[in-house]
Amino acid sequence: MTQYEIIDSHCHIFPDKIALRASQATGDFYNIPMSYDGTVRSLIKSGNRIGVSKYVVHSTATKKEQVSSINNFIFETISAYDCFIGFGTLSKDMDKAGIRSEVEKIISRGLKGIKLHPDFQDFNIDDEKVFAIYETCEGRLPILFHVGDERYDRSSPARLAKTLKRFPGLTAIAAHLGGYQRWDEALETIIGNKNVYIDTCSSLPIISKEKAVDIIRKHGYERVMFGTDYPMWDHKEEKERFDSLELTEIEREAIFSKNAKRLLKIT
């Protein structure tokens, strides 16, 4: 099989002093043992095993007071490592002026998007309290959403579909093939939406190969990106799962790197 450039489009990183604790908390939330400790060092070590050239890195603020420090950490990290592409974060509890100010800072620092996790951040995707975030990012920055979970409805694909009708200029990245554990709902609501990209992370270990390919083809492979959800999964194992899908070489190359390059305007 041809070896293509690989961009990991979905990685969580944390400062060394809290990385292990933060990673374990995520694992506890999903009842999934984490493969790594969430540090930058471990991410690069894991990615090097499959030749990852670039990593999209981010973290999520569960309180508005964390937004600035997290975005500073992401900026400092991408400044220190050429292989990192940063996404900032925002909070539902920020006022409009604060959101606008932080987004301007994010753009000026060269960060390429926003990461939101409705389940961790305690909001519904289609809640009016986060409309100011969407209004500010619409046409300027893509938003990477955690989407899906059988236990919760806050991050459902249907709620994302409603949001995109309200904000037609918003570009969304729907993680986990459009909706973790809720792929049938994703197929009914957001798969095929031209304003939506999806990534492969935290899906391939549990979804059937046939359904994964069906989602990719129905959505359009040009808007699908490879991701691992580091520190949850191992890069080598995730690549092996992806390689086992019955996709064409054109589709593989696009998903591994070309689509992320086009969306994020990177070389």
User: What's the number of extended β-strand segments?
Assistant: 8
CATH superfamily: Metal-dependent hydrolases
Mean pLDDT: 97
The share of residues in helices is 40-55%
Quaternary structure classification? single chain
**What is the CATH architecture term?**
Alpha-Beta Barrel
CATH topology: TIM Barrel
Which runs of at least 5 residues are low in confidence (pLDDT < 50)? Answer: none
CATH class, please? Alpha Beta
Continuous helix count: 11
Strand order of the largest sheet: 1-2-3-4-5-6-7-8
Q: Which class of secondary structure composition applies to the elements?
A: alpha/beta
State Rg.
Answer: 17 Å
Q: Give, in order, the helices and strands.
A: EHHEHEHEHHEHEHEHEHH
Reported for the largest beta sheet, the result is: 8 strands, parallel
